Amino acid sequence: MSIHCEIMPFITSLHVSVCSLSLKDFKLELQMGKWQQEISWLLFVFFSSDIEISRAQSPKAVDVLAKEIGLLTDEIEIYGQTKAKVRLSLLERLKDQPDGKYVLVAGITPTPLGEGKSTVTIGLVQALTAHLNINSFACLRQPSQGPTFGVKGGAAGGGYAQVIPMEEFNLHLTGDIHAITAANNLLAAAIDARILHENTQSDKALYNRLVPVVNGVREFSAIQLARLRRLGINKTDPGTLTEEEISKFARLDIDPSTITWQRVVDTNDRFLRKITVGQANTEKGFVRQAQFDIAVASEIMAILALTTSLQDMKERLGKMVVANDKKGEPVTAEDLGVTGALAVLMKDAIKPTLMQTLEGTPVFVHAGPFANIAHGNSSVLADKIALKLVGEKGFVVTEAGFGADIGMEKFFNIKCRASGLVPSVVVLVATVRALKMHGGGPNVTAGAPLKKEYTEENLQLVADGCCNLQKQIQITQLFGVPVVVALNVFKTDSPAEVDLVCEIAKQSGAFDAVPCNHWSAGGRGAVKLAQAVEKAANQKNSFKYLYNLELPIVEKIRIIAQKVYGAQDIELSPAAQSQVDRYTRQGFGNLPICMAKTHLSLSHQPERKGVPTGFILPISDVRASIGAGFIYPLVGTMSTMPGLPTRPCFYDIDLDPVTEQVKGLF
């Protein structure tokens, strides 16, 4: 059948010939819209894999897309045919433009397969823009290559609700994660090198090398002058410092046992979880145990996601605490003199990347912190720019990682504090299969066929598992924001199961609950969801944070554990309590909390499904990301470096040497 729908004012009008699953192909025609762009006919062929669906659609040129949404020629930096960086100067030009509505997509506690938050996000904006003629923007995280080549795969969405070209989205993009890796590891190298040089040189020799004579002139660099001022040394001539001042300036006296800054790589590599550095003879016996984290766990990634300007990013980079000195005082990137260099490496990464959905609607891809070991949200800057571009009646839809107890809680308590933005609606994604798991169904394993409990109707399992959905609705209500449940429908779901979930969700306080078929039908399959979101956005919003920042660190952790996870109480290890005391003494006690916890359960035990109760949440360690602006407790045995499974995704990924086309990505 053929459906006509007007595209949003800043895109085009759209004629869509929609197919059922049995049809071989259908055609997507983009005609001239308000801006009178010439858009070519596109052939859309129904294939079985996400990458084939993505490749069957020819995306419009990114400069055409940019013009449609109101960007000026000098506000974009084009990368190839389908990607562009957007300059932050746009915010100044549009500063008087009212913001649009702000929508967060979260989810119930997921299976290891994921429940489709990304596809819901894409399906929703396609429905809003391509089918309801409402300006909308999706803001997504850049995927790490760890999951892309590990178990989970990419994060472009799927089926007929995805970002295209999906291989460009999932592989390298515009190099932001590589920039973060380079900046992170430059700082790590600076730490070890500084310790080595301080251990092997006198004060005078160290000072002479830090402030050398160049072409007959000896002077401090700008960052060294800033360090002198912090030390209370109000001198600018290197020749006038006393011996005591020289020692104070030249020596950081880093205590190696307190180093918290780790090297990173964007690969799941379990054998880097504990390493020894400094074993070469040239390092003169300076050997210590260290580790690698996955790149997206770097504090620099968190800073990229939370920063509001280039100046703000530079200040945050300088504040990053990497260790303590031997007196117990924090040592920062600014102390190491590396802030400016880090900012140079990140100067392009701070700009959001513009892409498009399968139906030609705009997407920003920017930042990619994990939600279980970081705060799990895309960038503040992408959201702010998108809110200006869509206009007062438009919608910006962004996604928080994993379940609402993880990504959504951090979105509200960390990201919204940093941005000052107030969300209008939460879309809570659920699937029948995940609810069956929470109702007592057998374990779900990535790569293994689903057991019959998940492929045959079982209303009792669904009903029992809705306790997790009800709990996540209650968590959302703690923040005073209306919630719409989006049931991501699979072909194995029966109509009775779908109806049961929607009825329970509405009885449990959801503004609405809507079955969605965006994976198979694109935006058309999410029109009812879009209509429900539009209505919910007009409801009374009494948004509030969960805790006051002035509360002690331990009390803030306890509030999250009890009110969000449902724990009876928390228990801090001696090491965790010692770190809390240290951060409080150092003046960091008023920061928000970013819990590092398994995403597979409301508790700290991944095998406990549904809504666990009566458990004591163990806090094994507490660390601080001072530049990013949060304290992060580690719950149980959380690892910041994932490992590869027996059969990773890379077995199926290949490159055709003739066509240069990527195969096997999903």
TrEMBL record:
Family label: In the N-terminal section; belongs to the tetrahydrofolate dehydrogenase/cyclohydrolase family.
Source organism: Calidris pygmaea
BP-aspect Gene Ontology terms: carboxylic acid biosynthetic process; tetrahydrofolate interconversion
Protein name as catalogued: formate--tetrahydrofolate ligase
Pfam families: FTHFS
Cellular component terms per the entry's GO annotation: cytoplasm
EC number of this enzyme: 6.3.4.3
Subunit structure: Homodimer.
Keywords, ordered alphabetically: ATP-binding, Ligase, Nucleotide-binding, One-carbon metabolism
Pathway: One-carbon metabolism; tetrahydrofolate interconversion
InterPro entries: Formate_THF_ligase, Formate_THF_ligase_CS, P-loop_NTPase
GO MF terms held by the record: ATP binding; formate-tetrahydrofolate ligase activity
The keyword Nucleotide-binding appears for this protein: yes
Enzyme class: ligase
